[in-house]
Write a structure and sequence with these properties.
heterotrimer; A mainly alpha (320); B alpha/beta (297); C mainly alpha (311); B: 297 residues; alpha/beta; Rossmann fold; ten-stranded mixed sheet; 10 helices; 10 strands; C: 311 residues; mainly alpha; MetI-like fold; flat; disordered N terminus
């Protein structure tokens, strides 16, 4: 039988095209969802922006059930910034220490257990950290906060940060819990980036008479700084958006103060906490607008983080 | 290059290196002549194990000052492993154990009181793949002196220039000391690594196949450089190329793998160690002859 | 490390050299030591935290789960938080229903997306944009996902919209980017020569992907998906707006309100009644155990599949 063109042109090509389109649809779903998120929550936020205008962002007061309700997001934005900052300040040294210990100091047999330990922290659901924070940790922290205030209360800057403590649920408590939660994120990224440091670079430093720490600062850190910064920013994004753990331990009273031992509130926390009581359309819209604010803020942080990480990865691959 | 070797004054003439054949374990080293204090390294019955695996054993060597000594041999014969003993780089490999006696100018390098970090200041190393740090050319060269605590700008400038000149790189990078070392060519990077090692003002420079990643022209430059600097330094080089060993070195040590007498495991051994001209012209051991004539390896 | 031979009568080494080799300056040595201790200290810190959390959860949770066994798993949640006693059946069922539904939505979509990125899009502009936004989406806070599904899916359906399926949609949004990223990583690891072998036998690209590439990568894909599932099972924020607040068991994701272990932990932790707090600890222990079981099941599954594909 003679071979014809149609024999070579597979009938299965149609199936192939369908399959390819299906996979494309799977990928496009991500873009669609992101676009829908942006559109729908912006749409639902317009009500509050129409009534409160841009004052929504600069207004400190939050009095949704007053006769003349006031909706201001500033104290929540402040709380988000403060708790995320505390979390980063506490988590970054621990994460980097842990990543360096795992990759540079620990003997070979200890590496896997150490990675498993870090991963275990990541597996504990955030609400469990919240539960632990509110019932176990917070009552124990009151005494610690009071001591810190007594010791450092008169110091110039620390004095205002470590003010009077009245309760265990504070900015600092939320920051502590968030720090625990973002530590595995930063650690695992830092560890991966550090491991890309070529052994020859480490040998080069050691052969010049460097101690281990000098080898780390001379060869490992210059190599991994970019990627690690990206990892820290991803951790920051997570700390800003983490809801339930923060909602349980932050104290839920919108405050703007330098005192880290004061109860406060944050964007995700207030949305979760007050959603159930939000019966007026205005209040719902205000809470959704705060969700929009959070979305935009974390989007910016993640844009930057993704760009930093991918650039660092490219540079490292190109350099080798 | 090698014709005038016989007329070179060699310190400690009482000992002819000769062949270092495996010796009985029990033999006392007591007959070692004390006049050999002029040796840079004096290695007796060295063995290196990685866990249960023996990489190399029964190595006896004496390295003379201001000479180039090459280590040659097939892959896996332990020549790099022995090289890495001289500046205790094997310490960084977990599970590595070094046995035997390794003396650097009379000091037991593996004595408990000796610090590996400090050893590496005296004994510099250049690696197979150029490995400049991702920093500027200047900072690469200044790295070692800074570790040693040198912070004066003018001192650093002086030592950077001196080291780069020493590595025959100064003219090429003089105007871009602040630009990244990663922008240099492979050959330039390797010379930068040599400059970086020189800046520590070492006594010995170990080179682990320094030219294997380079093209012939860059290789020739490194070889010329080695001839220039050997008046000031003692150089030990591991090389895969017999031609290179023959071109540049005063003495050559040939390693190979051998099945151990006790067991069935293969381990590296030192077969022959002699003046390069003699080794290539008239090897004492059949295995050496087989290797240098290309019948094996 | 030191010599094993009897020491030869060594030529007396230069004292100065010996002294110089003896050690780095005290300051540098000290710095190295301090930094090493600090690195070790960070390990101690994280170890203390994880041990404290686990010990508290297991200690406090075990007392209620064990003392009311098997009622803990077979009775519904007490209507008043003040009442003592067990019952998390509704929450356990709710967690299973929402998580399984979310998995059914997110895993096929996620794998499809990853296949597009790795097998078709590769480095084209659209694929690169997609990759970038996948990373970005992975960073969107879970509460925003909940708000989105509330506004987009629940509101148009009124109170009927509060059900397990809505919660699952929110969880699926959370899982999707995680699955796309981990699956793509796994597909990348499949050697090109396997694909070539399949093409050389006349297989089409879809057939090659479905019968060669995905099976080869499946252990990795599964463990990636399980990480996403574990994350989703523990999530609370997306469910607050979407699932309602049931106390009775409901296996049907499409109708009627539901609840979950995570929601029950959250609700009971907020209460000031000791009885409610006790139930929160019990739920926390149940949730962690469930997550661990999931993980073990996954390990066994992926081990079996990788054995199967190897033979």
């Amino acid at each position: 039988m003679a071979l014809t063109i149609s024999d070579l042109r597979s009938k299965r090509q149609v199936g192939d095209r369908v399959f390819r389109s299906a996979t494309l649809a799977g990928g496009a779903a991500i873009l669609l969802i992101l676009a829908l998120i942006a559109y729908t929550i912006t749409n639902k936020s317009t009500l509050i922006f129409r009534t409160a205008g841009l004052d929504f962002f600069t207004e400190k007061r939050w009095a949704p059930s007053a006769d003349k309700p006031v909706f201001g997001a500033l104290s929540f934005i402040f709380g988000t910034a403060v708790t995320a900052t505390i979390a980063i300040v506490l988590a970054v040294p621990v994460s980097l220490g842990l990543a360096l210990f795992t990759t540079q100091v620990a003997p070979k047999w200890l590496k896997k257990p150490l990675v498993a330990l870090t991963d275990m922290v990541a597996v504990v659901p955030s609400v469990v950290f919240g539960l632990w924070g509110i019932i176990y940790l917070a009552p124990k922290l009151i005494g610690f906060f009071k001591n810190m205030h007594n010791w450092f209360g008169d110091w110039p800057i620390l004095g205002s940060l470590f003010g009077k403590a009245s309760a265990g649920r504070t900015f600092m408590t939320a920051g502590l819990i968030l720090a625990v939660m973002i530590t595995p994120i930063i650690t695992s990224i830092a560890r991966e980036v550090i491991e890309t440091t070529p052994q020859t670079d480490c040998d080069g430093a050691l052969a010049l008479g460097a101690t281990r720490w000098e080898m780390i600062t001379g060869a490992v850190i210059p190599h991994s700084a970019g990627g690690t910064v990206g990892g820290v920013m991803l951790g920051l994004g997570r700390a800003m958006g983490e809801t339930i753990a923060a909602a349980l331990v932050i104290g839920s009273s919108p405050t703007i103060t330098a005192n880290l031992f004061s109860a406060g509130d944050s964007l995700p926390s207030v949305i979760a906490f007050q959603w159930g009581e939000a019966t007026s359309a205005e209040k719902r819209s205000a809470l959704i607008a705060m969700g929009l604010t959070l979305f935009v803020l974390t989007l910016l942080v993640n844009f930057a983080a993704t760009a930093v990480v991918s650039r660092a990865m490219r540079r490292m691959q190109g350099a080798s | 290059m090698t014709q005038d070797l016989d007329s070179r004054p060699v310190v400690g003439t009482s000992a002819h290196p000769g062949t270092a054949l495996p010796r009985p374990q029990s033999q006392s080293a007591g007959d070692t002549p004390t006049r050999e204090s002029g040796m840079v390294f004096d290695v007796t019955d060295l063995a290196v194990h990685y866990g249960a695996f023996t990489a190399v054993r029964e190595v006896d060597l004496k390295i003379r000052p201001n000479e180039i000594t090459s280590f040659i041999g097939p892959s896996g014969c332990g020549k790099s492993t022995v090289l890495r003993c001289f500046n205790r780089m094997n310490d960084t490999i977990s599970g590595a154990r070094v046995e035997g006696d390794l003396r650097y100018r009379g000091v037991d390098l593996y004595a408990p009181s000796v610090s590996a970090t400090q050893v590496r200041k005296h004994i510099g190393m250049v690696f197979q793949k150029p490995n400049p740090f991702p920093k500027s050319i200047y900072d690469n060269v200044a790295y070692g002196p800074r570790l040693a605590g040198m912070s004066s700008r003018s001192d650093l400038d002086a030592i950077v220039e001196q080291s780069l000149r020493g590595a025959a790189l100064w003219e090429e990078v003089e105007n871009r000391l602040k630009s990244s070392a990663m922008g240099l060519s492979g050959g330039q990077q390797q010379r930068l690594c040599i400059a970086r090692a020189l800046a520590v003002q070492p006594d010995v420079i170990l080179m682990d196949e320094p030219c294997s990643a380079l093209d012939p022209i860059a290789t020739a430059r490194i070889e010329d450089l080695m001839q220039e600097i050997k008046t000031k330094y003692t150089i030990i080089i591991v090389t895969h190329s017999m031609q290179q060993a023959a071109r540049i070195s005063d003495r050559t040590a040939f390693f190979t793998t051998e099945v151990s007498s006790e067991g069935d495991r293969r381990a590296g051994v030192l077969v022959e160690y002699d003046r390069t001209d003699r080794m290539f012209a008239n090897p004492a051991d059949d295995r050496t002859e087989a290797y240098v004539t290309g019948r094996f390896g | 490390m030191t010599a094993v031979l009897e020491t030869p009568p060594a030529p007396s080494p230069s004292e100065a050299l010996l002294a110089d080799l003896a050690g780095v300056s005290g300051r540098r040595k000290l710095k190295n030591l301090v930094m090493t201790i600090l690195m070790g200290a960070s390990l101690v810190v994280i170890l203390i935290v994880i041990v404290l959390v686990l010990v508290t959860v297991i200690g406090k949770g075990w007392s209620i789960v064990a003392s009311s066994f098997p009622d803990w798993f077979t009775t519904d949640i007490p209507l008043s938080p003040r009442r003592p006693g067990p019952g998390m059946k509704a929450a356990i069922i709710g967690t299973i229903v929402t998580t399984v539904t979310a998995t059914a939505i997110a895993v096929p979509l996620g794998i499809a997306g990853a296949v597009y990125l790795n097998e078709y899009g590769k480095q084209n502009v659209f694929a690169r944009i997609l990759r970038f936004f996948t990373s970005v989406m992975a960073g969107v806070p879970s509460i925003v996902m909940g708000l989105f599904i509330y506004v987009f899916w629940v509101v148009p359906r009124g109170t009927d919209g509060l059900n397990g399926f809505s919660g699952a949609l929110a969880l699926a949004c959370l899982m999707l980017p995680i699955i796309v990223r981990s699956t793509e990583e796994m597909l990348k690891l499949v050697p090109q020569n396997l694909r070539d072998a399949s093409y050389a036998l006349g297989a089409t690209s879809s057939r090659t992907t479905l019968t060669v590439v995905i099976p080869k990568a499946s252990p990795g894909i599964i463990s990636g998906a399980l990480l996403a599932i574990a994350r989703a099972a523990g999530e609370t924020a997306p469910l607050i707006f979407t699932i309602g607040a049931a106390k009775a068991s409901n296996w049907n994701p499409f109708s009627g309100t539901n609840t979950s272990l995570s929601l029950q932990i959250y609700a009971n932790a907020k209460e000031s009644f000791a009885n409610a707090n006790e139930r929160a600890w019990g739920s926390a222990l149940t949730l962690i155990t469930l997550a661990v079981l999931f993980t073990i099941a996954a390990r066994i599954l992926s081990a079996r599949i990788s054995r199967g594909s190897a033979s």
